[in-house]
Backbone:
């Protein structure tokens, strides 16, 4: 059985913890009061993946990482053995579009992850207008899958998109394991 380690990263106050709790079914969705994550929170759950050759269930570790750069010295340890990265940002905050380039460079480029092991989530806070508009993303970011999330209006769409993403991650893990086994045999 695969255990997928997925990092949830992005700028402060982008909605990472709310999404992590929702995806892991750790709590019912509620806006609530903002409380910044200190370092990292790890949520473990089982999930069925969509689109993978083997439909699981899969053990998932969802690492809800703080967006505070004071924890930057811990990030290499968090990245170790990660299977995928989800960058969460608030598209209504202009600085987030620039910040996600830094997150991509530090967590994705440095690990050599494939595009299908990554996901961008434009997380819309309650009360904001959700538009599936094209965002002015840098070219290397525009290659990554992007979903708009709104837990008030379309919570099941977010869950389904995450399951499809998880299927991509599981496929990548499976292919990597097969390549490793073949290199041992030959």
Residues:
């Amino acid at each position: 059985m695969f255990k997928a380690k997925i990092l949830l990263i992005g700028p402060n106050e982008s909605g990472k913890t709310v999404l992590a709790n929702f995806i892991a079914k750790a709590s019912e969705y509620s806006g609530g009061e903002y409380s910044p994550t200190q370092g990292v929170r790890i949520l473990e759950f089982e999930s069925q993946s969509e689109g993978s050759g083997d439909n699981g269930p899969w053990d998932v570790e969802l690492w809800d990482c703080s967006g505070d750069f004071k924890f930057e010295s811990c990030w290499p340890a968090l990245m170790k053995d990660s299977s995928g990265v989800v960058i969460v940002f608030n598209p209504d905050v202009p600085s987030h579009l620039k910040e996600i380039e830094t997150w991509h460079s530090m967590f994705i480029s440095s690990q050599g992850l494939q595009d299908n092991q990554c996901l961008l989530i434009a997380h819309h806070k309650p009360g904001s207008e959700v538009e599936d508009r094209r965002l002015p993303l840098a070219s290397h970011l525009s290659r990554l899958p992007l979903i708009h999330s709104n837990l008030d209006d379309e919570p099941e769409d977010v869950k389904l998109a995450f399951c499809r993403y998880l299927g991509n991650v599981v496929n990548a893990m499976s292919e990597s394991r097969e390549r490793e086994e073949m290199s041992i045999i030959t």
The chain has a mean pLDDT of 86. The CA atoms of residues 11 and 69 lie 9 Å apart.
